[in-house]
Structure formats: C-alpha cells, structure tokens
C-alpha cells in the first residue's frame, strides 16, 4: 500500500516537472515581464500552454526590452563616471575654493540649464545652515551680509559622441545571392551599424533575395532616424521585373503594339489565373500560323488545354492591330521559326525553353501547369526569339546593366556594365540551352564554361576591342549606351513602383539587353534581384564598388546623412575611375 502511494507521488512529481519545463523555463526573457506580479506570471504560463505562437512573440519583445535595459545600464554606468577619465583641471583652478561637485549624472544637464545659479545656491546653503545651527541664534538670510559665492568647479570636458555608448542601427542580410558580400560592405560601417538575426524585432535595414514577408506598411516617414525602416524592394516592382508585368506596363504606356515591340521582342501573355486565357491563346496561334516563314512546321493548328477557367478579370492591354503587325527582319530567318517559353516570375534561366512547334509548347505548358518536378506555374509569356543576333567570335552574348532606384525615387545607371557570353557556337538547328541562354546560372553548368573568357564575361572595353577585330563598325559607348539610357527612362516612366508613396525604399535592378545583326538594341528583361556572385575577376572588381556606391546614395543618406563615409571607408578600385567618384549616373525621377 505504501509503495503504491509512493509511486503516485513520484508520477505526480514527474508531471509537475513536465508542466514546469513547458512554462517560463523555455522562455527566459518572459521573466522580465512578470517579475513584479505573480498574477502576470500565472497569465503568461497559461499563454505558453495554450498559445505558444503568442508566447514566442512576447519572448522576442522581452528580448528587445532586455537589450534596451542593458544598454541603458551601460549608459548610466558611463555617466556615473566609472568608465570615463576624470575632468581635466589646471593648477590655477585647483587653488580656487570650490563647492561639492555636482554628480556626473547631473553634469550633462548643466549644459542646458544651470541648476546651481548663485541665488539658488545661496538659498540651499541657508536651508542647510538652518538645520545645523541652533534656531535661537539663527539670523535670517535677508539680514546677513552679502557673501561672494565661490565659483563652481569647471564643467566636465564631456564629449557625448566619444564617451557615451552609441546607439547603432541594425541590419539583417538574408542568405543567398552572395549575401556575404553585402554584409562585408555593411561591416565597413560598423561604427554605426550592427548585424542582427532575422528573429530580432528592431531592424532598420533588411536586405533579402525576395520581398515576401516584408511589411511595407512600416515604411513611413519619421523625423527620428532610429524610427526609420528601409527595404531593398519596392512594393510594386513586379510591374517591370516580372516578364508579364514589363510587357503589360509598356503596352499600357504606349497603347501601341508597334512602339512597344520596337523596344522588346514580340510577346504574348498566357495567364491561366484569369478568365481571358482562351482568347490570348487563340490570338497567339493565329499569329503563329500567319507569320510562319517555313510553311506548315506543326501538325497542330491550335493549342488545347482543359484548364480551369477563373472568374478573375485579366489586365487590360491593347493588342489591337496584332494581326497586321509585321515581325522585324532580324527576328526571323529562312531556315527556322523559333520562339521562347518563359515562366512569368522565375529567374536565372529556370523554365526557359526554345521551341518551334505548337506541340512542343503545349506539352511544356501542361508539364509546368501541373507541376514539373517541384515547380508549378500558371503564368507564362511566349516571346519571339531573335534569330539573327550579333555574335562575338560566332557565339551569342547579352549585356547586363545595373539600375538603382533610391528612396527619393531617383533612378541611376551604373557607369560600367558587363557582357555575358555563351561558351558554345551559335546555331539555330540546335535547341541546346547552353547555346541560346547566356545567364551565368545556366552557363556555369556547361562543360566549356570559362574556356574563352574568365567566367564567360567581358568588360565593355574588351567587348569594343573584339567588335573592332571582327570589323563590326559599331561604337558601343557612343551608339549603344545612349540607347540603353533611353530604354531605362521609358521603363521607369511606364508604371508607378511606389503607388502608395512609401518612404525609405530602395532597389537594385538588372537590365538585360541584346544587339541584333542590324545593330539594333533590344530589351530582354528586367531582374528584381540581379546576380551578385563574383564569378570572374571583372565582377570581383565591379560588384563591391557598385554596392558601396549604391549604399552611399541610399542607406547612408537616410540613416547617417551627417557622416561622410567617402573619407574613411576603404576604396574599391575600378580601372579608369577615380576612387572618390560615385559611379552611379543619375538619369531622372520615376513616374
């Protein structure tokens, strides 16, 4: 009987320990919130048991409180004079009679208001004397002889910027796309910035590879720099950075397909999320059949899908006149009829396919719609392939340029760009992606990667030399670069990236261009998160300078406008440019 009761006690004790382990023990920071009141402690224990997600949020908040208290304690300790040197006093000043010193905690306040004015000081001395001297022999202050008050000790030579602990701004850099380089650039500003984890509540600057999870409502104007928040994305950047968004913005801006498809190659949009997708497919198949230069290459004459028809209305764009639209001569050839299928929101060349028949594109769309591998996509563009591009040594290439949008909605073009080349000889008869896609994410997996150029990349200077060697009469800096500036201005004016007038946003964009054999420049796409991998010696020189100069125009102006980082930050040297020069060229203001 005794053993049974003993077992019950042991089980009861174990159960109590389990409950206790699930209580405040796992949430050490919550003890700060319930020290004073046992009632609060019981409430928090109940929250931990019933609502663990809320408990985690409270724990993060308590972590911030703990951090704030620690900083305040450190600040008070310094103000108390324990960690700073004593005041500097000359020999003459030592000989002067002095009153008891004001405490170090009161000393900074003395600069704003002198609490020890001679009159106030005399009255305080009178009160002291009144307590110490016999009341019968006390003489009122008014009947006393006027006494000169000795001068106070000289004020502490107190340098607030040097002697007080500085409150730093917090930044978080997410993983991926060479985030370590971004951290390295920000660490050079360690006097004003400190890195914090994602779970830390008070973050002033967030740099991520995607805008998912960003609360744009926090981007509000504030006089206090410590209340400001900055993201590396704008809320409506997809208006130009998604493949469908860019096409729709330009079509709405011009309201004319001739002008739109003079900037980008002809595009058809398939959005299976809205109710108009059958009309879009019919529009494409009719155009495909009419403009096929090599006759009937496809057994099928239509695309057949049994997908769900949504009730959502599509984005209104003007495709009027598409039936009479004539493709530019460099987009076609006599031997092939090639098109590109691109998922709307994917990047780094994922999901991009070259096709020539309707059977191919139908099979590809179905595979992605129902989920090819781990991927699923319901929005695509079909774009005409440039079949007669300008080649370098018989290989295809494109041009990557960087564009910056600042918190003031100014946009800048970086003064240097680079050429991305294919490592395989160009051919229309082979649909191999290593021939047709020049993205570094694609080319680095090719067998001949880096065989001709370091990282399959060229500087603009070397690019011009190769053009001169193959007797192509084209001065890129004088003819091509002004065209790039014009196209960037058009895209920025075609839409509003900051419709809700958020404050303190910034974004880095990657613009991709191609040149055809008639030396016409084409915009291929705009990337929301351009690759920052230092995959060649050229990019090891350009990317750090590009990021550092970008932060000088954005981050530094918002949070530390009074600091000139250019004087003491390390210099990222770029050939043919001065160290003190900011390599971002302002082009204008966004619409």
TrEMBL record:
This is Tubulin-tyrosine ligase family protein. InterPro entries: TTL/TTLL_fam. It holds the Pfam family TTL. It comes from Paramecium sonneborni. Residues 1-22 are annotated as: Disordered.
């Amino acid at each position: 009987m005794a053993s049974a009761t003993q077992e019950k006690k042991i089980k009861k004790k174990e159960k109590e320990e389990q409950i206790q382990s699930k209580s405040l023990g796992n949430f050490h920071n919550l003890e700060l919130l319930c020290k004073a009141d046992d009632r609060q402690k019981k409430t928090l224990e109940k929250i931990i048991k019933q609502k663990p997600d809320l408990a985690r949020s409270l724990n993060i908040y308590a972590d911030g409180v703990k951090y704030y208290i620690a900083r305040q304690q450190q600040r008070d300790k310094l103000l108390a004079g324990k960690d700073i040197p004593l005041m500097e006093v000359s020999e003459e000043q030592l000989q002067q009679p002095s009153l008891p010193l004001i405490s170090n905690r009161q000393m900074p306040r003395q600069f704003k208001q002198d609490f020890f004015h001679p009159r106030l000081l005399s009255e305080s001395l009178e009160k002291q004397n009144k307590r110490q001297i016999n009341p019968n022999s006390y003489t009122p202050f008014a009947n006393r002889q006027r006494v000169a008050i000795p001068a106070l000790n000289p004020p502490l030579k107190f340098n607030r910027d040097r002697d007080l602990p500085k409150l730093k701004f917090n930044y978080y850099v997410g993983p991926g796309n060479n985030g370590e380089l971004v951290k390295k650039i920000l660490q050079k500003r360690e006097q004003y910035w400190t890195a914090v984890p994602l779970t830390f509540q008070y973050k002033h600057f967030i740099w991520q590879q995607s805008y998912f999870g960003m609360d744009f409502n926090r981007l509000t104007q504030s006089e206090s720099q410590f209340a400001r928040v900055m993201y590396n994305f704008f809320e409506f950047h997809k208006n130009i950075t998604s493949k469908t968004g860019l096409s729709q913005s330009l079509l709405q801006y011009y309201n004319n397909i001739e002008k739109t498809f003079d900037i980008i190659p002809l595009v058809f949009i398939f959005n299976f999320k809205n109710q108009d997708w059958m009309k879009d497919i019919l529009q494409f198949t009719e155009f495909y059949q009419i403009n096929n230069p090599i006759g009937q290459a496809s057994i099928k004459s239509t695309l057949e899908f049994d997908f769900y028809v949504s009730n959502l209305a599509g984005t209104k764009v003007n495709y009027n006149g598409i039936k009479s639209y004539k493709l530019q001569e460099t987009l076609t050839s006599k031997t092939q009829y090639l098109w590109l299928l691109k998922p709307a929101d994917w990047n780094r060349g994922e999901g991009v396919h070259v096709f020539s028949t309707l059977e191919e594109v139908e099979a590809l769309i179905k595979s992605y719609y129902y989920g090819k591998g781990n991927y699923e996509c319901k929005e695509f563009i079909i774009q005409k392939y440039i079949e007669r591009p300008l080649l370098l040594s018989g290989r295809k290439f494109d041009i990557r340029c960087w564009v910056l949008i600042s918190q003031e909605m100014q946009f800048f073009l970086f003064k240097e760009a680079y050429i991305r080349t294919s490592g395989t000889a160009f051919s229309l008869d082979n649909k191999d992606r290593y021939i047709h896609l020049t993205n570094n994410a694609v080319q680095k997996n090719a067998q001949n990667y880096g065989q001709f150029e370091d990282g399959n990349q060229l500087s603009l200077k070397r690019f011009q030399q190769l053009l001169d060697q193959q007797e192509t009469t084209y001065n890129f800096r004088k003819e091509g670069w002004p065209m790039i500036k014009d196209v960037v201005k058009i895209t920025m004016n075609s839409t509003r990236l900051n419709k809700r007038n958020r404050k303190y946003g910034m974004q880095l964009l990657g613009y991709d261009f191609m040149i055809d054999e008639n030396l016409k420049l084409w915009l291929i796409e705009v990337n929301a998160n351009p690759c920052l991998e230092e995959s060649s010696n050229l990019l090891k020189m350009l990317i750090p300078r590009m990021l550092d100069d970008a932060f000088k125009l954005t981050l530094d102006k918002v949070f530390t406008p009074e600091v000139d980082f250019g004087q003491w930050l390390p210099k990222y040297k770029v050939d043919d440019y001065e160290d003190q020069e900011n390599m971002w060229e302002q082009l204008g203001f966004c619409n």
